[in-house]
Every structure is written in C-alpha cells, then in structure tokens.
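From the shared-data thread, chain only:
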Amino acid sequence: MPPWLLYAFLSALAASLVGVLGRIGVKDVNDNLATVVRSAIMTLMLLCFCTFAGAWKHVGELRGKALLAIALSGAAGATSWIFYFKALKLAEVSKVSPIDKLSMPLGILLAVILLSERPSAVNWLGIVMIAGGAYLATVKAA
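Structure, as tokens:
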C-alpha cells in the first residue's frame, strides 16, 4: 500500500471519530466553546508532532504565496469547524456528517477551477455518486 493511501485511511478513521465525539461533547456545552477547546487540543498535539518530527527547521520556507495559502486554509478550516459544531449541536451525526462530506466533491470542483486538475469520467461518476449518497443519507425515512 502506498504511504499516501495509508495516511488517507488513517485520516478517515480519525475524522470518523470527530462527529461522534463532537456530538457527545456539544450536548450540554456551548458549541463555540467546544470548537475553541478542540482547536486548542489540536494546536498542542500539532506543536508536539512538529517538534518530534523536526519540522521547525523548515520555518524559513513559510513565506509569500505559500504562507498566504496556508493561512487562508487555516481560516477555511476554522470556519468549517465553527459551522460543523453548530450543526452537531442541532442535529444527529447521521444527518450532519454526510452533508459535511460534500466538501469532497466541492473540493474537487474547486481543484478543477483553480488548479486545472482534470478528473476522469470514472472519477466524475464517483463524485456524483458521493453527492447523491450524501442526499440519500439525509432523506427522512418514509
């Protein structure tokens, strides 16, 4: 298995816990406060990870366009977390999570527009199926 695929699966596994644990966490807690606590824990973990991985020696590489893109990515991520926890406060994980995963087809569309990426016909079919699956996963049972 290529390393990128292993990392992607581990990411999906960890991300699958976010909704369930987040829903439990925001049940009796302000969702904005929960988001701040979550981000503080993430910051501490990432600081430790960068230290142990020796990433600090690359700080000088953070400049210009790369730094701006990373900063904007951080702002987008924070915005996503704010709205995700607000949604979890109001609805079940089984409703919120599929809609949140629409970030995948939306991200691919943005990559096509902004990065000139070109998914194949089979890739597009998968993208449409994911969007359709998100809809079906949130439809009320008859």
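The first helix runs from residue 3 to 26.
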